Amino acid sequence: MAASALPSRTFHRLRLPSSATSHPSRETCLPSAVSRRRAAVQLLSAGFLTAVSPPPPSLAARRGRIVVPPEDYLTAPDGLKYYDLIEGKGPTAEKGSAVQVHFDCIYRGITAVSSRESKLLAGNRSIAQPYEFIVGSPPGKERKRDFTDNANGLYSAQAAPKPPAAMYTITEGMKVGGKRRVIVPPELGYGKRGMSEIPPDSPFELDIELLEVITPAEK
Predict the structure, then answer these.
(1) CA 80, 194, 97: angle at the middle one, nearest 5?
(2) DSSP secondary structure of 26-60
(3) What is the pLDDT along the chain (219 residues), one digit of tens a residue?
(4) Domains of the chain (ranges plus CATH)?
(5) 72, 183 in Cβ contact below 8 A?
(6) Could you tell me the CA-to-CA distances from 2 to 8, 10, 13, 91, 168 in Å, in that order?
(7) Rounded Cα distance, 174 and 159, in Å
(8) Phi and psi dihedrals of 186, rounded to 5?
(9) Where is the PPIase FKBP-type domain (predicted)?
(10) Residues with Cβ < 8 Å from 1, sequence gap 6 or more?
(11) Is residue 110 classed as helix, strand or coil in its secondary structure?
(12) Are 164 and 188 in contact (CB under 8 A)?
């Protein structure tokens, strides 16, 4: 076989079309009668287009929690940001009043600390025990270690987890039946030590439900 015959058999057959002629050839691959919608489906199946799905809802929304925009929060005199999810209709919690609450500390959509999960000292069960404290008092003074016997077994009279310091002041002004959400900064939360799933020096959300108010005279 002559060497001069090789270029004519290989070079001309492998030559690619120039950019000037590439676009018309692409346009002719789709019939003119095909609708835009059908053409998009064909391109999608061929991998030229990518379907864009709507962004997934937040974790809080999926769990049924109310999402409060930052601009809707009010500012307390001590600088805490709060929002009343439900306005109560009962007695008002005033400074010096003994109150019972349920509280939940939420970090990135996860409930890390909650009075609804108080641990029994005897047994392996949890109880939803309200937390009782004096509004405006120093945090932690009420955590006495009295013990009580009942059908649930032996448990502490204040078996609920430790609440953040912000709860002792931001509860003032709430009414029984009300629910309040608070943005807790680290210095009024769990500080440099953190708590459970809340890392050190981290802000979080605090949900408070006011169950009962006992005035100083009644106490």
Answers:
(1) 45
(2) HHTTS-TTS-HHHHHHHHHHHTSS---PPPPPPHH
(3) 445 444 444 444 545 455 444 444 444 444 444 566 676 656 556 654 444 444 444 445 445 678 899 999 999 998 999 999 999 999 999 999 999 999 999 999 899 999 887 665 555 566 678 899 999 999 877 765 444 444 444 444 455 688 999 999 999 999 999 999 999 999 999 999 999 889 999 999 999 999 999 865 455
(4) 22-52 (no CATH), 59-214 (3.10.50.40)
(5) no
(6) 12, 14, 19, 108, 99
(7) 24
(8) -55, -35
(9) 96-214
(10) none
(11) strand
(12) yes
Show Cβ contacts of residue 128 under 8 Å, excluding neighbours closer than 6 positions: 102, 115, 116, 117, 118
Dihedral angle of Cα 56, 196, 186, 82, to the nearest 10 degrees: 60
Token duo for residue 130? 């309200």
